[in-house]
Amino acid sequence: SRMLVASGCAVPLQAVTATYRCDTGLAQAHRQRIILPGLDHISIVTAGATHAAVMAWLGAYVDAHIGTVAANADVRLHWMLLGFLAAALALFPLIAIGSRLLSRRAAWRDPRPVSASPVSVSISSPPPVWLDLAVLSGALIGGLLVLRMLLPQSFWAPTPLHFLAQQVSADTATYLAIVGTLMLTGQALIPPLRARLLASVRASALWQIPLAAVGVLFLYTTLGGLSSFAWENLMLSPERLWRAAVYVALIAPYFVSLQAMLSGYMARRARVAALAQMVPAVLLIVALVAAIVMNFGRLSYLGILLPIVIIILLALVGLAAGVRRYLSAPTLLIATIQTLLLAWILAATLPLVG
Length: 354
Prior knowledge:
Blueprint lengths: L1 H8 L11 E3 L6 E3 L15 H14 L11 H37 L19 H22 L16 H23 L1 H13 L4 H23 L7 H25 L7 H25 L1 H9 L1 H18 L7 H19 L5
Antiparallel strand pairs: 1-2
């Protein structure tokens, strides 16, 4: 910013201070540099201080009418966050009503009893906990090694998914695709894990997939519409929509294998079930940190976004815990919702750089 202002104002670099401005005498040729205190890389875009500084500059140099009407950007952002929370909470009764209607329709077609209470998939010989941890940890570590070989060191260098033209999103989806493939392979090769995987998927009715799609569509129309008023627009343009479809295909194996793995723990004590939900999220966060350290030149921007990534992963854990209160064997429902939500976020939020 100092170099740009120094060049535009034709002054030495040392003359450009934290509050420097100049008027070149030409129409619309006013330049100003302001360092706003207390902001970081993420919040500078949405902070009220940024909005006020921009409005003041436009009112002083472009049109005096700009900024005459008071606007509090922070209040607008807070109302958006409240709307986000309301839409997220409304998803649970929507799923509860939809699951009851669809399960009753399935029961009408098939008169066999349908359980409406949360249950766990049971198999004759449940696998030990250490085996699940070994498969999950091995997939995360193996994914790090493969990702290290696939990704270049440079942020701008092309990758196998360069056609997506979204480095951070594409790199994250690539890692989840590798981990998901390794997890499914491990579960398929180990008999007790294979039995639980098949039992979990078979117990999860196919109507859960369209129900999950309806739930995500509800969030898309509510959260997407609210975001366009106070933040970054989360609605998908055609250029981003096809990328979201690619991300769905890449990350679906991870969430399907993960929810099948967790299905065996949900009927145990509440503490065990809660711990089972949290452990994979924590291990994935640790793996992402390790990926950043191993290839900082490529994934440094992911490190900046890591707090938001943590919030998203914890929100997906809470979503899964809430859904399991309303439905028995919801493997496909939870996996589909988590896949669609994360694919939407990856496609909508980060810039296209092709």
